[in-house]
UniProtKB/TrEMBL annotation:
The lineage of its organism: Bacteria, Bacillati, Actinomycetota, Actinomycetes, Kitasatosporales. InterPro entries: Histidine_triad_CS, Histidine_triad_HIT, HIT-like, HIT-like_sf. The active site is at H97 (tele-amp-histidine intermediate). It comes from the Bacteria. It comes from Streptomyces cavourensis. This is HIT domain-containing protein. Residues 4-110 form the HIT domain. PANTHER family: ADENOSINE 5'-MONOPHOSPHORAMIDASE HNT1, HIT FAMILY PROTEIN 1.
Length: 139
């Protein structure tokens, strides 16, 4: 079956905003707003846990460039950058991607969650994260 986004790249079958050797950007089939753009690493990386830091840096640089273009070309007042990675995150395509959604004060929708998670963590999650970060950097 293969990856939908890899097919788009291989077959040149998207409405491209930008194409590059490391990161590319294209219009989704069902945009949330005029100019909504998906930014992806050109190579197949499943999610944020899989992508090498260099490819992620190039991809995020393109996210920033697309956001700036939205502000100038579309007169957007801001953007939302949305991504989901891994099981349980609602990731719809297993190829790392960032939705860059232009926003205006009168656009009448929200991309921010309206409810809090019911999941509970034993102990203090901030301490657990800080400890994990320290252990990761000590390697």
């Amino acid at each position: 079956m293969g990856c939908t986004f890899c097919h788009l790249i291989r077959d040149d079958a998207a409405r491209w905003v930008a194409r590059g050797p490391v990161a590319s950007a294209f219009a989704p089939l069902n945009p949330l707003a005029p100019g909504h753009t998906l930014v992806i690493p050109t190579a197949h990386w499943a999610d944020i846990f899989d992508v090498p830091p260099e490819d992620l840096a190039h991809t995020m640089a393109l996210v920033q460039q697309v956001a700036a273009a939205m502000r100038t070309a579309l007169k957007a007042k801001g953007v939302n950058v949305l991504s989901a990675s891994g099981p349980g995150s609602e990731q719809s395509v297993p190829h790392l991607h960032f939705h860059v959604v232009p926003r205006w004060p009168d656009d009448a929708f929200s991309t921010w969650p309206t409810q809090r998670s019911r999941h509970q963590i034993a102990d203090d999650p901030v301490t657990q994260l800080a400890d994990a970060m320290t252990a990761t950097h000590a390697r």
